[in-house]
Amino acid sequence: MQLSDLISDIGRRARVASRSLSNLSTDTKNAVLRAMADELLVREPAILEANARDVAGASDHGLAPAAVDRLRLTPARLRAMAEGIRHVADLPDPVNEVLDEWTRPNGIRISKVRKPIGVIGIIYESRPNVTSDAAVLCIKTGNAVILRGGSESIHSNLALAEAMQVGGSRAGLPEDSIQLIPVTDRDAVRMMAQMDDCIDVLVPRGGKSLIEAVVSNARMPVIKHYDGVCHIYVDAAADLEMAASILINAKCQRPGVCNSAECVVVHRDAAEAFFKIAAPQLAVHGVELRADEDSFSQLKTLNYPLLAQASEEDYRTEYLALILSVRIVPDLAAAVDHIERYGSHHSDAIVTRDAVAAERFLNEVDSATVYWNASTRFTDGAEFGFGAEIGISTDKLHARGPMALPELTTYRYFIRGEGQIRE
Amino acid sequence: MQLSDLISDIGRRARVASRSLSNLSTDTKNAVLRAMADELLVREPAILEANARDVAGASDHGLAPAAVDRLRLTPARLRAMAEGIRHVADLPDPVNEVLDEWTRPNGIRISKVRKPIGVIGIIYESRPNVTSDAAVLCIKTGNAVILRGGSESIHSNLALAEAMQVGGSRAGLPEDSIQLIPVTDRDAVRMMAQMDDCIDVLVPRGGKSLIEAVVSNARMPVIKHYDGVCHIYVDAAADLEMAASILINAKCQRPGVCNSAECVVVHRDAAEAFFKIAAPQLAVHGVELRADEDSFSQLKTLNYPLLAQASEEDYRTEYLALILSVRIVPDLAAAVDHIERYGSHHSDAIVTRDAVAAERFLNEVDSATVYWNASTRFTDGAEFGFGAEIGISTDKLHARGPMALPELTTYRYFIRGEGQIRE
Which of A11, A327, B39, B128 gives a 20 to 30 Å CA spacing to A47? Predict the structure, then answer.
């Protein structure tokens, strides 16, 4: 079978499956999820064997040890995956929620009701746990899912997807509700991106070039999970100890994630005192600073050990490492300008005691999540209390910021009448 | 200036304008709208003169008289346009509405707040009133707008856009909030579709080929307003008089619009009795019927005057004319299958006294608006009570069905803390 025929066939099957899926009861869907979790554990030997092939391949291809570790499944990680699925089964089902309801003067009653989207395509890289996370959230919301994972984890992904489909089927999951594309080259992504008759939305999770390949080809809506170039702005009226604590947390607690800070913007009047408090702590964590002219000379005076001059490019960079760009600004407006110009509209924070400045910052910074006196690291489905998360959307439409179950649904209007016609 | 430079320049200016616009107060925005309405009336002679050039050009190019009429502005139509703007000024402002708010165990307070999207591109054809409708709804919701109208109405559109921008400026509208692309070839559309750094969403309103040009080029989200291939399903348990009344209304009241019916699907057990009632009424309205084999022979027996056999293609066709396809089905499931297969997921209705059948139809037909015992002609912002409408979305994400002011907004999460960091 040609690749294009294979992909269209998968698309058509998903569309058929989505029609049955969208009408499953909450109880059936939850039973399906629990059966999926059970089957993952039953198949532990086969899944770990498939995973071992991926891990061996990755080592042979010289993947970095940290990346190999992210790829590796263990009995404990598989148990955690199964637990994660059972947890989603326990969450409330957003489908059929009545979002709004009203009666018009002519007597027609209009209800806006949450419904599954239909078919969701998830395009991701490396970590095999995305296979179960993504599939489970789609099934919970009554959507068929087409998964296209990376080549490094193809054997693990196939084993996991098969386990979930087989386990789920026993409890009533329609055939083809969970399909994994067995081909990992970019052509498959491009073909998926053209199938707007079969796929209602694509969610790419991965590096910039993967997302770019999806965006430039997609005919259907794409919910993007782009970079986080996140800022901490230390205002003139900041509590400087608090500012240092928030900055250290946002930069150092887990530098490799999208909600970590990449740049600190400091008000001119606070800079000297702030650097005195923050620089020693940043140095202890081994953070390299890339500073503008003003801050460079101040940090040099403090003998900061890992100091370089920032280039224009630095301010646009998501380092995902212990590197931080630094910028001194004359006022709040300049801080907002900097963030709007260089940021990625993901998560940005102001630290200040001045409520007026804070509210202005919240209103003028056009990011998915904007913070006053808290760390940007809270941009996360679990930290928001959402129970589950498919990712952090950097888009403005449909879903913005942490994306949970409701963001995997659409709505329909039901209109009930007694023969009304339009005059 | 090259076309590409011109379009990028317009995009950049819109982005700048959108930042000021998003922070305008409701009062200022409403004052801006009223000033826009005033200026339209002040400039009546210039606008009508510009319009006369378009009308003359259209007649010269052999545009159909009905199309020329849609293009024509009169003092009364201009007054209606101004009235429409004042009406939008009186509507509630959705911006800054708190959609949700909660406090986490660690004390951070999360607020989900409605905010403008940023820059909206509207791509449309022919009727100049879209220029004011679209601009006004975008300004009300704090968005900058880039308008790209059709060549037939370019002089009218330029005159209207200038009047709105100049009038609005007097009341505080930021420069470049309303821009009209002065070039009407398709290259301009393709360039707009690539500018995802400057335009947050595109809303194409027009024929299929225009929408297709946008969809296949766009890097940003597109909210499509595609065809309405709408169905009336006459169930076995239908009140047949009601079914005929709804069908006549949905087909004949205004056949050229997207929410009119294009196909009647009839349950086998109701067909003979239904045709006896409906056929004479359809004949009076001069409706041509394109019938499947079963219904063809029944309608032939009734001597229906305008009868043809339906092709496969007929069932996919949005006639926008007094033509109706007819199909007899053995049961509800077959009716749903037909609608899912041939329909455009816009508006579909069941006529029945059987509540169980009705609820099944509502749940299984995956259309933006699904009706029980009412005409599909109610799919409309005004009929829904929305006060204003930018169109009918046939998409599933962000906006579905009638799109009003809230659908021209996004949201941001504001998180207020007291120094919280993530453990």
Answer: A11
